Amino acid sequence: MEVRGKVKSKSNLGPNWRVYLSGEIHSDWRDKIIDSARAEGLPVEFFSPVTDHSASDNCGVDILGEEEKPFWKDHKGAKLNAVRTRTLIEKADIVVVRFGEKYRQWNAAFDAGYASALGKPLIVVHPAEFTHALKEVDAAALVVAETLEQAFKALTYVINGSLSK
Length: 165
Description:
Elements: E1 5-7, E2 17-23, H1 29-40, E3 44-47, H2 53-64, H3 70-91, E4 94-98, H4 106-117, E5 122-125, H5 135-140, E6 143-145, H6 148-160
Parallel strand pairs: 2-3, 2-4, 4-5, 5-6
Antiparallel strand pairs: 1-3
Helix pairs in contact: 2-3
């Protein structure tokens, strides 16, 4: 299993927390969270869905064979991707879901709902203008942030039990 980023702890806080990073795949937001956690010395392992858009879209037909209809191509890929997504969300201690500004991320909304149904603590990140559209997702979240910095500070507080300086 691929670990997106494993951060060694500077402190003696016990075992690593497992954080699943869900959401848009068109920016480097995951790397920013992972790099910040590394700099802070948080005892955390990060996991994520497949972020190679082409691989995610084509995995079903590349592995299981071509399909004539786009529905069945997407169906195969979605089910194959769900094996990874569901497994890693189930193993996560915290799920962070980021909704980007450019694309509709139905998969992120689904991941948030799945995590919520499993009782996973959910940190949601999205711009203020998405508040109404994501009101149900926000209602399920324990933390709703408008910026990555806010989300990271919340994650740091939860893991360390103290405010960052």
